[in-house]
Amino acid sequence: MIVNANQCPMLHPQVAARAVAGQMLIVLADWGEVMVLNDSGTRLWAWIDGRRSAGEIASVLAETFGLEAKQAQAETGDFLQALLDVQAIELGETPQKVG
Amino acid sequence: MADEPLSILIAGIAAELDLSRLPPETRAGIVSTYAPFAGTNAAVPIHVCVEFAPGAPFIEPEQHREWQIRTRERAGQVQYTSFYERGWIDLSAGIAYVLLRRAGNLENFLRVLYARECLARGGLLLHASGVIRNGRGYVFFGPSGAGKTTVTRLSRDETVLSDDLVIVAPHHGCCWVYGVPFRGTMSEAPRTNAAAPLCGLFALDKAPTHRVVELAPVYAVAQLAACVPFVMGQAAAAAQVVAICTALAAKVPVRTLHFRPDAGFWNLLD
Q: Which one, A53, B130, B174, B243, has the greatest CB density within 10 A?
C-alpha cells in the first residue's frame, strides 16, 4: 500500500512506544522487534495520532523545519511508508474521533 | 514421597509442581533437576499440575529447529504449545497445567511461566548470562551468538548463575540478579541458586580488544528489551517490558562490553 495525503496514520494496535531521553523507542509486538527512531522520526512519530492526515503531517513538518512543501511531503511519505511496511502503523481514510 | 508436590523457589517466586501423575523415572528426573531450587516462602505458590500421556508431538519437530514455543493469550490464560508439551497458565488464578509427551521436558514451560510472573512483579527474565564476583552481580546480555556462554566459560572462578537466562528484579529498592535452573548451550553450566545486587548490565560484542563503552539511554533500553523472551507478543506486555527496562537503565549502568575470548575483560569491570 502506498500512503496518500488524505489518509490518517494511526498506531498499529500491536505496537508499544515510549520516549526515552527524547528519542522514540518502538516495539513491534507481533514480530518481537525493537526499533529506535532518529530525531526527525521521533518528531514525526509524535504527529501520528489518527486525526492528522499524511498531508497535514507534511504541512506541520514543513512549517516546523522551514522545508519546501514538496520535500516535506516526500520525507513524510517515505517515513510513513517505512512504518507501514513493518506494520508499526495503520491507515484510516477519515480522522479518528477523539475521546 | 511420590505424591507430595515439589516446591521450588526461583527469585522469590514459589511454584508447587504436582508430579504425582508422572511415571516414576520422569518424576525423579524433574526432582533431581530442580533440587537446587527446592524451597518455599510465605507467598502462595503457583500450582502447576504436570501430566504425562504418550502420543504424537503437539508440533511436528522440524529438522533444523532445535525448539519452538508458541504462546497466545486467550480468556485470561496463556496457551502454551511446544513439540512435546502443551499447557496453559492462569497467573491471576495462580494455576497452570502442562501435558508432557514421552520426550517432553518441563523446562521451556517453566521458562514461560516464570517470564510471565516476573513481569507481573516488575522484574524480567532476561536472555543473559549472570556472574557474581566479590558479592556483586554482573549481567551479560545479547542475542544467541553474542558471547554469553563464552563469558561464562571465562568466569569459572566466580559464581556463575547461568549462561543463558537470569532474572533481574527489584528487591528492597535495589535491582538484584537471580540464578535460574535453566541452561543454554553450556551443558556443564551449574544451576546456581544464588543472587546478588546488580552492579552492571553489559551488551556483549565480540571484538579484538577489551573495551567498555557507555550506551545512550534509548539504546540501553532497546537492547535490553530485545533480550526479554516469551512475553513480548502483546503490545501491553511489551510496553510493560520497556517501562521496566527504562527504570532498570536509570538505576544500573548499561554498557557495551567489547571483548576477546580471555578473562582480561574483568579488569575493566572491577
A: B130
1-40 of A, contacting B, C-beta below 8 A? 13-18, 20-21, 23, 25, 27, 29-30, 32-36
Taking CA–CA distances from A27, the nearest residue in chain B reads B238
Distances from the Cα of B173 to the Cαs of A13, A43, B116, B136, in angstroms? 33, 35, 21, 16
What is the three-class DSSP state of B32? Answer: helix
pLDDT in tens, chain B (270 residues): 567 899 999 999 999 999 999 999 999 999 999 999 999 998 899 999 999 999 999 998 876 666 788 998 888 899 999 999 999 999 999 999 999 998 888 999 999 999 999 999 999 999 999 999 999 999 999 998 999 999 999 998 999 999 999 999 999 999 999 999 987 666 777 789 999 999 999 999 999 999 999 999 999 999 999 999 999 999 999 999 999 999 999 999 999 999 999 999 999 998
Nearest to A18 among B234, B236, B246 (CB): B246
By C-alpha distance, the chain B residue nearest A37 is B218
Q: What was the ipTM of the complex prediction? A: 0.89
Nearest CB among A13, A20, A25 relative to B235 is that of A13
Interface test with B, best of A33, A34, A38, A45 (most B CBs within 10 A): A34
Other beta carbons within 10 Å of B75: 7
**Cβ within 8 Å of A, B 203-232:** 216-219, 221-223, 225-226, 232
pTM for the structure as a whole = 0.93
C-alpha cell of residue B241: 517490558
Does A41 contact B at CB distance below 8 Å? no
What is the C-alpha to C-alpha distance for residues B177 and B11, in angstroms, rounded to an integer?
Answer: 8
Chain centroid to CA B39: how far?
Answer: 18
Domain ranges of chain B: 6-120, 124-269
Of B177, B176, B196, nearest to B136 by C-alpha is B196
Amino acid at A91: L
How is chain A split into domains, by residue range?
A: 8-12+38-89
CA distance A18 to chain B (A): 7
